[in-house]
Amino acid sequence: MKTIHLKNGQTVFLREAIKGDALELVTYLQKVSAESDFLTFGPGEFSTSVSEEEEILEESHIAKNRFMLLALVENTVIGCLHFTGGSRKRIQHTGEFGVSALREYWNQGIGTAMVQELIQWAKDLNVIRKIKLRVRSDNSRAIRVYEKLGFVQEGLITREFLIQGVFYDCFYMGLCID
Ligand SMILES: CC(C)(COP(=O)(O)OP(=O)(O)OC[C@H]1O[C@@H](n2cnc3c(N)ncnc32)[C@H](O)[C@@H]1OP(=O)(O)O)[C@@H](O)C(=O)NCCC(=O)NCCS
């Protein structure tokens, strides 16, 4: 468990998720889906059940190259980061992550702190040699966080999102862990 202090002075705890967090996490993901168009799921589209989430968390715990981090205020999840490494030998050194926080907590340093934790975890694990992500090309807040922490743009994927009839492009970004 790590304690961080937000720009507004509030205290937030960061820790890896456990199976018992499934209900809180599903509740959080349903809420955050309605707050941002930058995620791969929109309002009402997060359909994973609590028991399915329990399985995901259990698998995440067992697999060496997966990482599920929660940001908590008291016992409420207000942010999360999920990294999944490759399942085969030739790609197990690399993986992709997604990160989010509740809108009322944006711009307070949580996103930065969670990605920093991921980078530190990857360095300590000594298996992950590259962290990847996809981000909508107009998501300047997220891009600012990633670039600040050393991620570089590696390419543009056109038409990655289709939201209410509008296509959005994404950047592929990466950070080498050496
Ligand atoms: C992206 C997200 C995780 C970032 O978390 P956060 O806690 O808001 O980020 P932080 O406060 O750590 O950092 C935000 C940075 O962006 C900057 N910023 C804010 N608005 C910005 C904008 N419109 N353009 C550029 N930079 C911006 C802030 O100043 C801050 O930079 P600084 O630390 O140098 O001052 C969060 O905003 C979120 O959940 N967004 C919706 C979901 C999402 O987009 N997820 C990422 C998908 S790839």
Automatic annotation (TrEMBL):
The keyword rRNA-binding does not apply. Transmembrane segments: none annotated. It comes from the Bacteria. It holds the Pfam family Acetyltransf_1. One of its GO terms (cellular component) is ribosome. Residues 12-178 form the N-acetyltransferase domain. InterPro entries: Acyl_CoA_acyltransferase (IPR016181), GNAT_dom (IPR000182). GO terms for molecular function: acyltransferase activity, transferring groups other than amino-acyl groups. Keywords: Ribonucleoprotein, Ribosomal protein, Transferase. Signal peptide: none annotated. PANTHER family: GNAT-FAMILY ACETYLTRANSFERASE, SPERMIDINE N(1)-ACETYLTRANSFERASE. This is Acetyltransferase, ribosomal protein N-acetylase. The lineage of its organism: Bacteria, Bacillati, Bacillota, Clostridia, Eubacteriales.
